[in-house]
Amino acid sequence: MIGIVYRSYKGEIAMKTLTMIEMEGCPYCANAHRAMDALRAEGYEDVQVDFIDENKEPAKTQPFAGMYYYVPSIFMDGKKLYEAQPGQSYDKIFAEVKHAFDAARTD
Q1: What sections of 12-89 are H helices per DSSP?
Q2: Residue 107 CB: number of other CB atoms within 10 A?
Q3: Which residue in 3, 40, 55, 96 could disulfide with 15, CB within 3.0 to 4.6 Å?
């Protein structure tokens, strides 16, 4: 799914929308949000993310059934880009979120 289009010094760049499956109260999800906020402050404000709370909107997770076990999990075009693992540090989560944000930017 194509998201927003913005102009930069390179011209127009099409943006793909990411989907993040999360759960309220999850510390890894909180770290993913923290990483997203930090990345947006560093110039990634154009990346669009649709958030799905697994507990509040279980029907919306059906297209991803069997594709993930842990949250947060980030998808683009039905492909999993990141799935948190127990014990992951903030630095690892930040690096994975940055990788997903970079993937959402297409030339």
Answers
A1: 27-39
A2: 7
A3: 3
The pTM of this model reads: 0.85
Instruction: Assess contact for 55 and 23: CB atoms under 8 A.
Output: yes
The secondary structure of residue 90, as a DSSP letter, is H
Residue 11's pLDDT is 52
The tens digit of pLDDT for each residue in 17-72 reads: 999 999 999 999 999 999 999 999 999 999 999 999 999 999 999 999 999 999 99
- DSSP label at residue 36: H
Give the Cα separation of 77 and 11 in Å (integer).
24
Decide if 106 contacts 16 (C-beta within 8 A). Answer: yes
User: Which among 55, 48, 76 has a CA at the least distance from the CA of 67?
Assistant: 76
